[in-house]
Every structure is written in structure tokens, then in C-alpha cells.
Amino acid sequence: MADAERTFVMVKPDGVQRGLVGEIVSRFEDRGLKLVAGKFTRIDDDLAREHYAEHVDEPFFDDLKSFITSGPVFAMVWEGQDAVAQVRRMMGETDPAESPPGTIRGDLGLDLGRNVIHGSDTEPGSAEREIELFFDDEELHDYERTDETWLYEESSSSRPAPTAARRRARGAGGRRRRRRPQAPETR
Ligand code: RTP
Ligand code: MG
Fold first, then answer.
1. Whose CA is nearest to atom 6 of ligand 1?
2. C-alpha of residue 99 to centroid of ligand 2, in Å
3. Residue 53 CA to ligand 2 centre (angstroms)
């Protein structure tokens, strides 16, 4: 595949309460994206301000903060070719009413303030910043899906560029802390 990307995705409190976690996870799995981290958690006021830092001065911020802290969320990291933009396309528009059928928000929501899912936007650095906000390095898992050779024409997957935290975790020599097990040699 071309360069693999990682993106941060979250089923918002309305999606959790409405029992949509499985449906949303299935859509990304079926598309061929790879789940590399997942966490059922609750966002507090400080995390809401950090996560939605670009919106803190917007008139809708107080409502947004109340909503996003109102119940548990399911936070995830998905990896794949062009993952950030592809997830945004699958989500639809910010307003479910403007989102075409076939998109997550277009199929599962009706109201701007209850739009079921968050996904990183395509601004450079957004996905990396949000991933580091919600996950420690050891919570992100490198592995290959067994169907990767059937998902991509070029089967040799390029790993995403390491984040600052991952570079720190690898140490000054740039080596991974843990090596993948080597396949036994065949005679
Ligand atoms: P998100 O960050 O939650 O994935 O949504 P988004 O990128 O599609 O939209 P964004 O512009 O980042 O807005 C964040 C959330 O704020 C609420 N919103 N309300 N009343 C309003 O004009 C308004 N605009 C945005 C939405 O719930 C949106 O998801
Ligand atoms: Mg946004």
C-alpha cells in the first residue's frame, strides 16, 4: 500500500447510548481499515477543552462540552491507506441532515449536535495530536491483518511515520523496544 496513516475516531456519547458502537466498528473493519487501539472512556472538562481546542471560543462550545462529557465514549485508532480522509468521507458532513445516505452520520443521525461520531480532520498534525491525547504509545498495536495482501495491490505495508512519543519510546538509537518474532527458518 501507499503510506499507511493513522486516524483518531470516537463514538460519541449518543452513539454509545444508542448501541451503535458495533455498527460503527463494523463499517471500518469491513472497509479494510485496521483497528490499532480502542478504549471505552469518559471525557472530562479538561480533556474536552484540549480535544476541541479549536472550538473553545465558539458560541456552541458550552453545549458541545456538556454533550461530549455527558457519558462514556468509545475512542479508537484506525490505520490504513489514506485513513484520515477516508474516515472523514465515511462519516459524512458535520451535520447529519446534510450527510448523504451511506455515510455514518447520514444513516445514523439527524441533528448537528448529536452526530454520533468524531473523526480527526485532515489538517496536518490533527490526527497525531488527538491520538497522543487519548492513547499512550504502548496502547497502539502494530500487527498485520491476515487479509492485507488482498486489500492492497502493493502488499508490503509502510508503517506510519513515528510520532514524537513513539520516537522517544524507541530511544536514542531509534530501535524498537520489542522486536517482532522472526519466522522460523524452513529447511
Ligand atoms: P467532530 O470534530 O466532532 O468530528 O465534528 P466535525 O469535525 O465534523 O465538526 P467541527 O467543525 O469540528 O465541530 C465539532 C462539533 O461541534 C458541533 N458543532 N455545532 N452549532 C454549530 O454551529 C455547530 N458547529 C459544530 C458539532 O456537533 C460538531 O461535531
Ligand atoms: Mg472536528
1. 94
2. 15
3. 10
**pTM of the predicted structure, to 2 decimals:** 0.85
141 is catalytic: no
**Ligand 1 close to Cβ of residue 22 (< 6 A):** no
pLDDT digits (tens, 9 = 90+) for 87-136: 999 999 999 999 999 999 999 999 999 999 999 999 999 999 999 999 99
Ordered alpha helix ranges (H), 69-125: 83-91, 104-108
Q: How many CB atoms lie within 10 A of CB 91?
A: 22
The dihedral through the CA atoms of 157, 163, 168, 174 has a sign that is positive
Distances (CA, A) of 121 to 51, 83, 125: 12, 11, 9
Count of CA atoms in the C-beta half-sphere (13 A) of 160: 26
User: pLDDT tens-digit profile of 85-96?
Assistant: 999 999 999 999
